[in-house]
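Q: How do we represent a protein-ligand complex in a form that can be generated token by token?
A: Start from the inputs.
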Amino acid sequence: MNEENESVPWICHVCGKKSSTGVGKACSLCFKIACDAHIKPLPLKSEKFGNLELKLVCTACSENLEGLEGEF
Ligand SMILES: [Zn+2]
Ligand SMILES: [Zn+2]
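Then emit the structure tokens for the protein with zinc ion bound:
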């Protein structure tokens, strides 16, 4: 039996929205799943190369980032 079309239900850890359509996107920082409304690509500095890379970051983490950047 081939089950390639299985849909894995996921829950956004920010708003708790459940979905089984598509695949939830994982935050690059906390590795939790978030829905489209709560995850967005942000330019983050790569520790390896020191350049900016677009990474998917959830709103919970991006709020923390903005707070940190304000200190510098
Ligand atoms: Zn959400
Ligand atoms: Zn996150």
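The beta strands are 10-11, 18-19, 25-26, 33-34, 39-45, 52-58. The domain at 10-71 is CATH 3.30.40.10 (Herpes Virus-1).
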